[in-house]
Amino acid sequence: MTMQPWFTEAKLGILVHWGIYAVDGVAESWSFFGGDLTRDAYMRQLDGFTASGYRPDDWALLFRRAEAKYAVLTAKHHDGVALWDTRRTDLSTAASTPAGRDLVGPFADAMRRQGLHVGLYFSHCDWSHPDYPSIRPSSLHRPWVDNRYAMPAPGDEDPARWERYLEQVHRGQIHELLHAYRPDLLWFDGAWERDERQWRMKELREEILRLRPDTVLNGRMLGYGDYATPELGVPIVRPEGPWELCYTIGDAWGYQPGDAHHKSVRELVRVFAETIGHGGNLLLNTGPMEDGTIPPEHADRLAGLGGWIRRNRDAVHGTMAGLPYGHHYGPSLISEDRRTLFLVCFDAPRFFTELRGLRNAVLSVSVLGTGEELGHRVVGGFPSRGVPGVVRINAPVLCDPYATVIALELDGEIELYRGSGEG
Ligand code: GLC
């Protein structure tokens, strides 16, 4: 699988969970699935969804200020409510809400106008469609999926209805999205209720790529996607291959008025630096209110993260995953020509920063954002045995409010010592 270069170069994307769940501020789809409220009460939110202040150009400007390179909108979540004028079901913002229109098209156009790549989130499962709960998977890995919105009772299976769901709704709506909006990325979710054979994931992948060969597919295709999608926690061990961490600013994905634990810009900068230092992208989520307003607390965080990225642009763009563990106590990045090393320091260095196991000579050391040159010297080591000393870098006078990045120009492509110290 070859990955589209724009995706791995992007580093930051914005995920937008927008849907009727923002009307009452309840959990997206899960609130009726889990029985917190009845499906009728959940669906009454259709009547309150106006999108009256929807200005996707403002979203796009904000996402640009955040320095994001792509944005992903929930075209359809597990609740089955499409945000575009689908012909496949009667459940959409166009047909069933006062908004009365397609919201995906204006999103895609606005993002493209600002130079962002367009991603669409699409739930494989549809907890509203009568044909969806028609077959059971070969094994139920997650007992909680045995729910009337997802599964027929054992013995009540109807493969013909499943075929109809796959053909009319699943494939049908994916086709609509591909044709109408030409997404650069299809961000799937909700595959866990069937197995990959039942979904015919292999064929789905082939079909999408036949229609639009450049589409990036996220990993939630049971083995047939392009990249891994860890959720809510930075991986401890660096994943192999391309990957993207999806992460919330508050605790919830969709807008919930009580969701007040907004991560600070400092926390978000950390997660971002850890993610890109391991070679991943961060897909940071926001949940607009029903009228389309992005909560101001989220907008502030996005702008703050963008400020950090601009100050430290050289470390973020045109770089790849940094050093393996043991060399620097924090994330790091390496320039594509492998001649510049960027060390991210979360806490302002007070005395010095140390770098271990570097074989290269260091030509110069400076701080991103301020350009301050830092003195350094090499301490210890056993050169005749090839054991490099420690590069000890003086502390900067001015540090970044969130995370200071120190750039080291090397005398050639980076070479690391990974030995035990015995030469
Ligand atoms: C989970 C949830 C969902 C959310 C998604 C984002 O899979 O089902 O509500 O959209 O995570 O990654």
Report on this model:
The structure is a single chain. The protein is α/β, with parallel strands linked by helices and 423 residues long. The protein has two domains: 5-311, Alpha-Beta Barrel (TIM Barrel); 320-410, Golgi alpha-mannosidase II (Immunoglobulin-like), CATH 2.60.40. The protein has 13 helices and 15 strands. It has helices spanning 5-10, 21-24, 30-33, 39-43, 56-65, 93-96, 104-113, 159-181, 196-199, 201-211, 265-277, 296-311, 313-316, and strands spanning 12-16, 70-76, 117-123, 185-189, 216-217, 244-248, 281-286, 319-321, 332-335, 340-345, 352-355, 362-367, 376-379, 390-394, 404-410. It has a seven-stranded parallel sheet with strand order 5-4-3-2-1-7-6. A five-stranded antiparallel sheet has the order 8-9-10-15-12. Helix 5 (56-65) crosses helix 7 (104-113), helix 5 packs parallel to helix 12 and helix 11 (265-277) packs across helix 12. It starts with a helix and ends in a 13-residue tail after the last strand. The mean pLDDT is 96. Bound molecules: alpha-D-glucopyranose. Alpha-D-glucopyranose (GLC) binds next to loops.
Task: Summarize the model shown.
The protein has 423 residues and is of the alpha/beta class. It folds into two domains: 307 residues, Glycosidases (TIM Barrel, Alpha-Beta Barrel), CATH 3.20.20; 91 residues, Immunoglobulin-like.
Secondary structure topology:
Blueprint: H1 5-10, E1 12-16, H2 21-24, H3 30-33, H4 39-43, H5 56-65, E2 70-76, H6 93-96, H7 104-113, E3 117-123, H8 159-181, E4 185-189, H9 196-199, H10 201-211, E5 216-217, E6 244-248, H11 265-277, E7 281-286, H12 296-311, H13 313-316, E8 319-321, E9 332-335, E10 340-345, E11 352-355, E12 362-367, E13 376-379, E14 390-394, E15 404-410
Helix pairs in contact: 5-7, 5-12, 11-12
